Amino acid sequence: MHDYVIIGGGIVGLATAMTVGKKYPKARILVLEKGQDVGQHQTGRNGSLKATFAREGNRSMVQFCRGHGLKHEVCGKVILATKGADLTLLDRLYRRGLDHRLAVTRLASEQVQEIEPHVRCLAGLKVPSTGIVNYREVLLNMLN
Fold this sequence. Notes:
Shape: elongated
Largest sheet: 3 strands, antiparallel
Strand content: 15-25%
Structural class: alpha+beta
Strand order of the largest sheet: 4-6-5
Order of helices and strands: EHEHHEEHEHEEH
Mean pLDDT: 85
Radius of gyration: 18 Å
Distance between the termini: 21 Å
């Protein structure tokens, strides 16, 4: 018999289990995962959150990593348009970023090359608040 059953052993499922466990320390929690291991689906591929949760997800992930001594780096990223059709998509991403109050900057191809000289593109977007982390380590830490 379990007090809580959580479906999915990805970042959202394990974060939910961890939060419930902190709020109700005596709760019996079961996490059901269809894969052989945690994080084999969406989390394991890219770890991204939906745009509406990007800012809060970013802040809480950095806080989690710091609090648990997990290696991470807020290094930012540049999203590129390498062909004409990409420019419309890049503009859509730019507007979505602004709509969600993300720090995002349009870059001309020359500005992108200042950041990364080996890249050839038509334009880019700079998102300085993004970072990298080993999500597998995050998931395994959440299991403990």
